[in-house]
Amino acid sequence: MKKIIIILLSLTCLTSCSDFLETFPKGQIVAKTTSDFRLLLDNADTRYTNNLSQTSMYVDVVSDNSQVAYDTWVDWIDKRTHVKQLYAFESEVWLPDGASGDVVWKNAYYISTLVSNILDEIHRADDNVRLQMQLTAEARVHRAYAYLTLVNIYAKHYNAATAASDKGVPLIQNPVDLPSLERASVQKVYDFILQDLLQSVDDLPDDISKQFSHRPTKTSAYAILARTYLYMGDFENAAFYADKSLAIHSYLYDYNSIYTGNAFSENVIGISRTTDDEMLLHKTTTKGAHLREYMQLDTVTFNSIYSDYTIIDTTTTINHDLRRSLWFEHVNENGKLTSDYVAYTFSDASHRYSVDNDGNVDYTSIATPEMYLTRAEGNARLGKLQLALDDINTLRSHRFITGYYTPMTLSDLGNDQQRVLDEVLLERRRELYGKDLRLFDVKRLNLGVTHTLDDQVLSVPANDPKLIWPVHYAYLDLNPEIGQTPR
Amino acid sequence: MEIDSTHVIFYRRKKTLFNLMKIAFFLLCTTVFSFTTENVMSQNTKVVIDADKTISVDEVFDLIKQQTEYTFIYPTDLFKNFPKVEVKKGVIRANKLLSQSLSGGNFKVTLNTNNAIVIRAAVEDNPAQSSISGTVLDVNGAPLIGVTILIKDTKTGVSTELDGSFKINASIGDELVFSYVGFETKTIKIENTAPLQVILKESSNTLDEVVVTGYYSLPKERATGSFSHVKTEELEKITSLSVKDKIEGVIPGLLFEPNYASDQSPTTDRSRGLVIRGASTLGDNSPLIVVDGFPVISSNGVDPWSTINPSDVASLTVLKDAAAASIWGAQAANGVIVIKTKTGTLSRKAQVDLSIEFIAQPKPDLFEIPFASSAESVDIYKSLFLENTYYDNLLQPFFRNRYEFPEVIDVLLQMKAGEISEQNGNQRLAELSKLDVRREFSDLFYRKMETNKKVNVSFSKGDETNRLRASLMALQSDKFAVGDQNQQIIGNLNNTFKPVDWFNVSFGVNFSILKQEKNGVAIGELSNIPQMSRILDDNGNYLPMIKNDYDDSYYDVPTWRRQELVDQYNLPYDWDWNLKRDIDNKDITDEKNDLRLNAKVSFIPLKGLNIDVSYQYQRNASLYSNYMNEESWYVRNAVNEFARPDGSFPIPAGGMLYEQRSSFISNDGRIQASFDRTYGDHSVRALGGFEIRKDYYESVPYGFYGYDPQALTQITGLNFQDEINPRMTGDNEWRGSIPPIPTIPKTSVRIQGRDDRFVSYYGNGVYTYKSKYDLTGSIRLDKTNLYGRSASYRNLPQWSVGLGWTVDQEDFFNVEAIDRLRLRASYGWNGHIDKSASPYINGTPWVDPVNQTQYAAVLSTPNPGLTWEKTGNYNLGVDFSLFNHRIQGEIEYYNKQSEDVLTDIAVNPTYGFYYDEATLNAGDISNTGIEFDINALVVDKNVKWNTTFNFSHNKNVVKNVNSTSSNIASRTSLSQFYPVAGQPTDFLAVAEWAGYNDDGLPQVYLDGVITDITNISYSGVDVDKLFKFVGQRSPKAFGSWTNSISYGNFELSARFLYSFGHKFLKDSPPRNLLYNYQSYRTFHTFNTDLLVDRWRSPADNETASMYSLDTRVSNYLTTLTNDYIAQYNSQNVLDAGQVRLQNISLAYKIPSEYLGGIRNAKIQFQARNLGPIFLKNKEGIDPSFPKYSSSLYSAYYNVIRDRPEYSISLLLNL
What we know:
The complex is a heterodimer of chains A (487) and B (1214). With 487 residues, chain A is mainly alpha-helical. Chain A has 18 helices and 14 strands. In chain A, the strands form 6 sheets. In chain A, strands 7-11-10 form a 3-stranded antiparallel β-sheet. A two-stranded parallel ribbon of chain A has the order 2-6. Chain A has a two-stranded antiparallel sheet with strand order 3-4. Helices cover 14% and strands 41% of the residues of chain B.
């Protein structure tokens, strides 16, 4: 009898053991099927440090879109000494009590590595081949976006003549092998970006419900292609892909419909990344970074960029351009400036995106206005001036108070290509303010930058190496082969 | 009572209950003596008995006479008082009947030619016999009943009575052999007729010759592997709260790892990490702890050692070689420490043991931290400010209006700005230099002495069917910081019930209830407050203080500005910060309860076959609770900070509560069959088993606002979603919503859970031939969940084989002096894989709060190339015993080759790994070593001197490194992540010092050329030319020497620890010193002592304690190089060789005449951790506790750890 009991006991246990080990540890997902990879590619949660949506921060502090007061600048010292140093064009940027590393660099390479890992593994998830292809394509688009950001922040701007020899950024496809981190040339990085995008675009859906605005689609892949070609100076392709993107999705908000006429903070309707119709691909600043900390303009610069307002009397001003009223703090309901500096607040969770309940990041998504502007610039440079002007008129008519905007005609600009282009570029600066893209335009358009700090005037000429972010010293320590950009 | 025959016993007891027969039979086995009468009559002579009856011996003779041809001749009164004999109906051989009848006495039986059997009393042959009496007791003084006492080489014997007494007829010069089941046999020579007191030692648990592996116990003379065993007596000699402390230095090859800069989480514990036989992995080297056959899993911050009551430990075995891992599997790659707890003693009388311990330590001396004195510090600040340009930017009104500075800085700013006269300023500075906050800090927050009071009671009782032991320990610890105290109760109960031979069942319970109050000051607070400041005013009132805390920038807002806001907006709380006030209002408790239940059922279905089914349940529950009342800074600051200028309070006034509940549940079951059989010269012992374990962990945080601990009410309905901006002071960029749980930001709130499962199969065998040759083998296969699909990750069998040869058993071996000589060899392979490093992409699931979609975040980078870490291990050993066991010892040699060692390598974030590190197969490590352990009873007279010396030597070398890096940090501060081929894992490399240059900056030899620090490129320099390897950080040779001298009732013992062959770095200037003095925010609250004698002029070239501050180095990378060189240079390296007096104790056994009813009483005084008595370095720096000012963190902890410990303890056996 006792032997039987023992045998029974043993058997019960042995037979159930295979199931016993099949249980995965709690709180973990081991990527095996397409639905597991779907989860990995849906990581856009901005509460945490690393995800597929966070790209950059403080990029534009180097640009002319950042003109800050001395005490604002002093405040950056706390945990962001590098921002302070970058703004002041100091030669040493990364100082020991600053951020624990370069979050922009880290985030972009986190995305690059995650994508490489997914691409290594996803071939096993063949339970749904269509979805498998789509996920592969999504992953590549995220990686292309990350490298496009990296190469523009940490390297010279693309110049077809020198790109093959200009040092870009390390290009890593096999991170687990810990390869050498020599920088690939700017040309190679761009080729890689284009390859990822072109290879992917066919496998993506045209467009997607805004609930999943973080997932790449054809329209957003086209948009990134357009941006890439624009930066490469290939205006034909830039206009071509901007057009393809707009063909699928071209929505623009009419600011008259979201302008309530009330005081600034109540002016803006709260929308979410799940409802924003202009959004093509959800991208954000890195965690904890807010545009308003450095996207500030002194009143003179502000008034010169957003010049469409009229002064009625000493107490009343009318803003024709609603971006003045909607985007900036310290502009009151009468359009008067109430401070020496205005701060851009439109992309943050206290205002336009107040529905998205966590204010850890600001939104710098790639959106339809940029496509209008890219198409316009492409057309302007290719001599298709009317087409260029049409896009500018469309955009402006959505941004101005009804009745205050008269569409421009070619004759207004004397049929002059340069004047049309200037209009396009000025509009681009206005509309893309707060997207952390201005530095790239500064580099691309060969502009110099001047910052004031207390009584000092700090200037760098066009193409100055100080417009390029240096690599964090800790990363150079670990892999000196990266090589620093001399400042 | 003389045992005459079994029948006699049965007769006297009148047929007692049947089940007692088995016990009696058991006694019979130990007491039956055969008689020579067997040969008296023919084997075929039989006698018929007609009915069961009890008859006298005379009647037996009549019976035999009637039915056979034999007659009897004997003195008529010889059997007068002889016990009667019980006979059963049936046929019985005559000689058997006769032998049984006479079995009780000592007779001389002869047969004469007439078939007459002559019987005479054998006593007559030995006229010198006299009656010897005495008592037999166990070590605790309890009487032992039924002990067999035989006169050596005879069949004559008696057994002890209920009170342990006995009486036997024996001659002077006879030897008496005392034997008792479960106890060691003892032989005593009779010198005179005085009563004897004999003490027998229990053998089942405390027998030092038994190796306990957790799965089975093995006599040590059969073991082939390396097992070190610590006896109860050894453990009991040391008074300590943790078993861990008790084994420091006792076990060869077990190193208590020194604490160096790489130790990033030092605790206040005196003892630190354990490493067995050198680091064989670059990751965690801590061994597995097994208690009563089951691993005790460390979880949730519960240290397994803390749940074990040292008084419950019967034995401790350390498994060091391949056999360890093949017995315990992958979890045992770093060795195993097997603890067996005490079980009920075999004693019908209950034994009660009581011990009372009082352990005290002086409070830490904060002045041991090498800081400059206040007066020196004032001078340092003066020269920085007034003679130099450091801090000049603070003069700007912007800073002066916005920030609050320590008074010394303030005065200097006013002096430099010309706002006060130099005389006035100097006078104020002179006042400040008399002030050192360490004195007030220590007086206010520290007790005079840290004390631990411990009481332990245990109860034990046992007989052949049931053994029970229960113990209870209560501990009250008052830590050195007022408000830090622990109360702990550990209870242990185990019972073994063996109703029949073939079945037994045992149950065990161990619970530990630990309540910790954590309301004391953290020593780190010292670095947040200025050295020259006060905490309370003369009347004992809280002074508003400033705090240097990067984590909470609200401390930055000057007190006066916070006060203005309170007045302006009518905020509910004042907004001053004071350290004492915060400490006074802390209410943090941490309760940790650990419960272990185990049950084991054993069957013996066939002779030699044993089947055990055992099960353990471990549950570990903890509750951390932090109640913050309205006086606490957190509450006042949070409410004020979130207040709106419109008069509303998004965070309501009132107390707050944060709690975290966690539980860990482990279920472990095992079925094991073992076979143990001897066939002639062959003995086989084999076991096989199957084990299954599930570990489940869960942790839930929660908290409340407006919490009233009395009414148990709280405020709900707060808006945790929306951002609140701007905050009240408006100075800060940081914005955010209300933390959903007080003190815990939204991103950290999460339920944590884990579910780990293991299935293992194992087998083990020992084959012995002629008790001389042993062949052992073991094999084990572990499986666990998570490793995905690939079989190569699931199945790695681990195995070992061993050979043993007991040379002294050989016929040819005939060396008088050597009692015992045994040679052993073992070899095996085991493996280890880090579960956190999976070859697959692993994601943590979350829900995106915006689109409410589930997603997975990747936290660990998959590594498809990951393989098992494998260690091949061989071990050679010699065990010996000389001069009648006066000298015993063992010598071992081992060689461990670890391949594909897994390690967390700090990797460039450019590789995109989430935590900037990756687990990789980094290379190979080789460990070779020699260990020996020798114990000698040097003097064995009135004075007994016992000495034990052990020695371990380990050579650790890294081979075939897969990853390399060549920056300065990889050879210095991060060297543990960058192994170098040919060097030990913990190598120390330094640059060769070449003095100071004309500016007082360091110079070193770079490739033989004296090079200025400013000419060394931080990332470009060739580190092979800059750094030279000068040794390793852990000792190559270490061990202990323990002496114990006893005289009469006194016993004095002392243990010395030694370690040699390693190096350490002495104090160096803090990193970033140059940079930090240029930063407006960082004011150093304390300055390093090294600054006092810093380089000031070329005259200081030889004597300067550190580089000059007069030369400003503005290039950050140069300051970084400077920091590294200032620390890692040849001038700064010292030999860490040392001898320490670890422990000294004096025990006094109180003579029994003073004890009344108490059997034994012992009082013991002890001092531990007494510091070095010999140092190889000439500067007198203790390498085990170097006090660094460069890392405040380690300075603090070394000051706390480096304290002697004194104890007094009383042990009573009732």
